Amino acid sequence: MLRTHPHVSLTVVAVVILLLPATSSFEEPLPVVAITSLSDGDWVEGVIEITVAAEGEVTFVELFINDEVVTTAVCTDCIVWDTRVADTTAPAEFTLVARATYNDGSQMESEPMSVTVLYPRQLTFEATGEGINLQPEWHPDGERLVFKSNRGLEQHIYHIYTMDAAGGEPVEVQTDRSYHGYPGWSPDGSHMVFNSYDPVNGTTHDMDIFAVDLSSGVSVSITFHCWPSTGRSQ
Predict the structure, then answer these.
(1) Of 112, 122, 160, 218, which is the most buried if we count CB atoms within 10 A?
(2) Are 183 and 192 in contact (CB under 8 A)?
(3) What is Dmax (Cα atoms) for the chain?
(4) CATH of the domain at 106
């Protein structure tokens, strides 16, 4: 019969415990190079100032956009990316990587980061005092938009206009109403919906929702006035 000394087993356990690494050694190390001024999935536009965190003595930093170098900087907080150079109007996704080059010639790259770039473009150009254009909405096909404007009208009167998404001369939508607000398209594009009231005989507290048939210009109220006491449609 084999016997073991109790002290031996305790010694072995103690040795095993001492040989196990500390819990902190299992933690994932922080990246040596990282883009800190943006987050993965951000939406950006215009000129973007990018900051990079890099450990050690860095000589310069290169910014890669979709695997191509777009700029090089000698400091980690003076990197500039001008997104306006792209000839497009549709949002586009880009992958960013920062690569730091150190004094000893070694290099280290950040983890890839994806951002979506927006390309806003002005479509209306009324001069000061000639009217304002607001509340745009897309057509379901994405090729046109509708908005309201008081161009050439009294300040409190708004008509609705359509325009190609690429720009051009706005076209007025003919209706039998004099005030229009928050216009929008029906799913099939054959009607528009907007709010309206009678500026001559009512106030903005008398606002109702109307739908207009674009082929005839005839609008129909699709809501009733609300009772002031309850705020419910009757």
Answers:
(1) 160
(2) yes
(3) 111
(4) 2.60.40.10
